[in-house]
UniProtKB/TrEMBL annotation, chain A:
Name of the protein in its database record: Indolepyruvate ferredoxin oxidoreductase beta subunit
Matching InterPro entries: IorB_Oxidoreductase (IPR052198), Pyrv/ketoisovalerate_OxRed_cat (IPR019752), Pyrv_flavodox_OxRed_cen (IPR002869)
One MF term in the entry's GO annotations: oxidoreductase activity, acting on the aldehyde or oxo group of donors
Superkingdom of the source species: Bacteria
Domain (Pyruvate/ketoisovalerate oxidoreductase catalytic): residue spans on this chain: 11-179
Keywords, alphabetical: Membrane, Oxidoreductase, Pyruvate, Transmembrane, Transmembrane helix
Residues passing through the membrane, by range: 132-152
Automatic annotation (TrEMBL), chain B:
The protein's role, per its UniProt record: Catalyzes the ferredoxin-dependent oxidative decarboxylation of arylpyruvates.
Binding site for [4Fe-4S] cluster 2: C572, C591, C594, C597
Entry EC no(s): 1.2.7.8
Catalysis: reaction(s): indole-3-pyruvate + 2 oxidized [2Fe-2S]-[ferredoxin] + CoA = (indol-3-yl)acetyl-CoA + 2 reduced [2Fe-2S]-[ferredoxin] + CO2 + H(+)
Listed Gene3D superfamilies: 3.30.70.20, 3.40.50.970
Cofactor note: Binds 2 [4Fe-4S] clusters. In this family the first cluster has a non-standard and varying [4Fe-4S] binding motif CX(2)CX(2)CX(4-5)CP.
Cofactor(s) needed by this chain: [4Fe-4S] cluster
Binding site for [4Fe-4S] cluster 1: C560, C563, C566, C601
Transmembrane spans: none
This protein's name: Indolepyruvate oxidoreductase subunit IorA
InterPro entries registered for this protein in UniProt: 4Fe4S_Fe-S-bd, 4Fe4S_Fe_S_CS, HACL1-like, IorA, Pyrv_Fd/Flavodoxin_OxRdtase_N, THDP-binding, TPP_enzyme_TPP-bd
């Protein structure tokens, strides 16, 4: 297993979008991904969690005995104490999902008043950008530039470029602002 | 190189259906199954597939439609969540007897946990009950592949096949190579055979006999025998083997590898947990000292062992009888099975977390607040949908199953009236999609039984909870054809309701007046009866619908005493409580400017912001 990442937030904060970007970044690097997400009732404003597992590609298996492919013999969930990184889009996420983090894992947390090295006021930065909804990308850029993720800022930039869409430039700006906050803090 | 794509489990299953040459897919949305047909619907809208795809009115209709299409020799599928099969139980049980011609796969997604369901029922047990084979995939890619086998199996034995993914398969994402969709499909052909398709009880007996014979043969089918995932492993002296199916098997493989047990505990994946072949079961009983069975959520494989003296599972108390088998739970069970010490107790979630709530600006919240205001002593039977969350507001007292709000309201009405008590007001709330699904027969019944209560149809003109699938009010099929609109107000009148009104809950005063008028109708001794009020406002989260321009957030003035009334009785996420005697603030990132909270504050402390 290359990296196990838990992303925690509240419904509507863009937890799924962050997972999607990480998954695409893994794919672009020739890695495989297995992710789990929250849908339905729990999405309505409750705590939302997403599990992202990144691993080496297990052969280009396309045919044959399906269950024997080791790529499929991986749980879609991360066990408590086994996450290498916890991305908390809301500080409540640390209380709700902090137990997933491995004792030597890295916590990256969106906090209004940062208290530790993994903290950043992503919402404040996003507000300054006039793009309050992009706090998720600010946090992601901060995490990538801090060097705790399996992928680089450049990988993430390329994913956002490829995804395109009307929010592309705003998303990229948020990602860069998060990265700048990490480098400035270093 | 083939293109690789990350697919959600439900998307992977949609691909599997298309790769298998399925020609018809019918479904009613329900978490965790919704995106299977949702994916097909998106393909259909973009004109890229020939398959007939439909959001049916309910699961029974979906299954019956798919079944007849398969009678006509064409591969067909129905998809639903586990409680949807309860609704479709009638055709399902019978379809096992009649069998099929073209392959029929019924995908039923289970929700151990449960995360977004009323029960943790195990559809594999439903398969045993109906005597049909059931397949249990362990991952999205596995699900896609297994669907091809499911159709072959169905056609080879002329039997419906149940396909049972769980939430952890449906809502997992995994990268996989894309494959072409199968384009050839046979022309529809129906051979009349009343002894089979319209069998009377005498012939049903013969069909039952045939079904039993099919099932014996299917259990022995080489394509779906349990497979040892770690062929190098052999049980140590006195050790054991594990038999698992579904996502639990994936958890178990990972745990065995992590604990260094991959070479010493053979792990069998059973892609078809029912029927298991007698050879497999007796082979294990003869050779393995102990057999641990890991499956969700009921003991289906475990119960198929005739002698359970050395079988460990739910029946023996070694596996919890309720709840999801999370990987950490599997780890605890495997450690105990292998005689390893338990890991340091993980501290677990250290906070209960936030409970789900209606979205900011949701019109349901306004409707519920109005209902509480007009019927303060009411009994409020509720129903299944986003608006179940009205229970946070004290405006939902019962939630049972789709459509039950209206029939339960009737039950309360009879109970109070017949026991000679001054009837308490009863207000049923039901969503628009749920009303179409199962509310109509209940409403007719209430009318013809002489009930007098108010039904509020919370009409956001979409199926919101499951991802905004269209309702019959849309007037358009998935392939873009214009079809008649079926309107709730017309249906309510046709059900015999004489008092039907429509209002916008944002227009709070007028909507409250509609509720009062409905209340008067239920009390009118001469001409009164049932009343239906339709609370109509498009869902704010539905990007397909025209939304009014966002209005500025209201202001909190200096009359706010921090009493918390708006927080507990209205619970809008945009209103932020800072403690008693501190003024509430408005989170303008969340506020949609609906302005309904202005009517909520007992101190008139919330006021409209001046128009810019």
């Amino acid at each position: 297993m290359k990296q196990q990442i838990v992303i925690s937030g509240l419904g509507g904060q863009g937890v799924l979008f962050v997972s999607k970007i990480l998954g695409e970044a893994a794919l672009a690097r020739g890695l495989s991904v297995l992710m789990s997400e929250t849908h339905g009732m729990a999405q309505r404003g409750g705590n939302v969690i997403s599990h992202v597992k990144v691993m080496d590609r297990q052969g280009e298996k396309d045919q044959g005995d399906v269950a024997m492919d080791p790529a499929w013999q991986v749980s879609p969930l991360i066990r408590p104490g086994h996450a290498h990184v916890l991305l908390a889009l809301h500080e409540e996420g640390v209380r709700a999902h902090g137990h997933f983090l491995s004792p030597d894992g890295a916590l990256v947390c969106n906090r209004i008043s940062p208290t530790g090295p993994g903290d950043v006021d992503a919402t404040g930065i996003a507000r300054k950008l006039g793009n309050l909804l992009a706090a998720n990308l600010v946090l992601l850029g901060f995490a990538a530039a801090s060097g705790v993720l399996f992928c680089s800022m450049d990988d993430l930039r390329q994913v956002l470029m490829r995804l395109g869409g009307p929010r592309r430039d705003a998303n990229l700006a948020a990602l860069e602002a998060g990265s700048a906050a990490a480098i400035g803090d270093a | 190189m083939t293109e690789r794509k990350i697919l959600l489990g439900n998307e992977a299953m949609a691909h599997g259906l298309l790769e298998a040459g399925c020609t018809l897919a019918a479904s009613y949305p329900g978490t965790p199954a919704s995106e299977i047909v949702g994916t097909l619907a998106a393909f259909k809208r973009s004109g890229t597939i020939a398959m007939h795809v439909e959001w049916s009115i309910n699961e029974k209709v979906a299954l019956e439609t798919a079944l007849a299409s398969s009678y006509a020799g064409r591969r067909s599928a129905a998809a639903m969540k586990q409680v949807g099969l309860n609704v479709a139980a009638d055709p399902f049980m019978s379809a096992a007897y009649t069998g099929v011609t073209g392959g029929l796969v019924v995908i039923v997604a289970d929700d151990p946990g449960p995360h977004s369901s009323q029960t943790e029922q195990d559809t594999r047990q439903f398969a045993m009950f109906a005597k049909v084979p059931v397949l249990d995939p362990m991952s999205p890619a596995h699900a896609r592949d297994l669907l091809l086998t499911a159709f072959d199996l169905s056609e080879d034995y002329q039997i419906p096949v149940l396909f049972r993914p769980t939430t952890r398969v449906c809502h997992a994402r995994q990268d996989m190579p894309l494959r072409p969709f199968r384009q050839d499909a046979p022309l529809a052909q129906f051979e009349k055979d009343p002894a089979r398709w319209a069998a009377t009880p005498k012939f049903r007996f013969l069909l039952h006999k045939k079904l039993n014979e099919k099932l014996d043969a299917i259990g022995r089918d080489p394509r779906l025998q349990p497979v040892q995932l770690n062929p190098g492993a052999s049980a140590e002296k006195g050790g054991g083997v594990i038999v698992a199916s579904g996502a639990v098997c994936a958890h178990t493989a990972e745990v065995l590898k992590d604990l260094g047990l991959w070479q010493s505990i053979p792990l069998y994946d059973a892609p078809m947990p029912f029927p298991l072949s007698e050879d497999f079961l007796t082979g294990l009983l003869d050779n393995a000292p102990r057999i641990l069975v890991l499956e969700e959520t009921q003991p289906v494989m475990e119960a198929q062992f005739r002698d359970r003296a050395k079988v460990l599972g739910r029946l023996s108390g070694h596996v919890p009888r309720e709840g999801e088998l999370l990987p950490e739970t599997v780890e605890r069970i495997v450690r105990a099975f292998a005689g390893l010490p338990q890991a340091e107790a993980s501290q677990g979630a250290n906070a209960p977390g936030r409970r789900p709530t209606l979205c900011p600006g949701c019109a349901h919240r306004a409707a519920f607040f109005a209902i509480r205001k007009v019927f303060p002593r009411g009994i409020y039977p509720g129903d299944i949908g986003c608006y179940t969350l009205g229970l946070n507001l004290g405006a939902v007292d019962t939630v049972l199953c789709m459509g039950a709000s209206i029939s339960q309201a009737a039950g309360f009405y009879h109970a109070f009236r017949d026991s000679g008590q001054n009837s308490r007001p009863i207000v049923a709330t039901i969503g628009d999609s749920t009303f179409y699904h199962a509310g109509i027969p209940a409403l007719i019944n209430a009318v013809i039984q002489g009930c007098r209560f108010v039904v509020v149809v919370l009409d956001n003109t979409t199926t919101a909870m499951t991802g905004h699938q269209p309702t019959p009010a849309e007037g358009r099929s998935l392939d873009g054809r214009t079809v008649p609109r079926v309107r709730i107000e017309d249906l309510a009148r046709a059900c015999g309701v004489r008092h039907v009104s429509v209002g916008d809950p944002y227009d709070f005063q007028a909507f409250t007046d509609l509720l009062k008028a409905a209340r008067e109708h239920t009390r009118d001794p001469e001409n009164g009866g049932m009343a239906v009020v339709i609370a109509r406002r498009p869902c704010l989260m539905d990007r397909k619908q025209a939304q009014p321009a966002r209005r500025p957030a209201p202001r909190i003035n200096d009359k706010c005493q921090g009493c918390g009334f708006c927080i507990t009785h209205f619970e809008c996420p945009a209103l932020v409580f800072h403690g008693k005697e501190e003024a509430v603030t408005v989170d303008d990132a969340l506020c949609t400017g609906c302005g309904v909270c202005i009517h909520v504050c007992p101190h008139s402390a919330i006021e409209m912001a001046p128009q810019p």
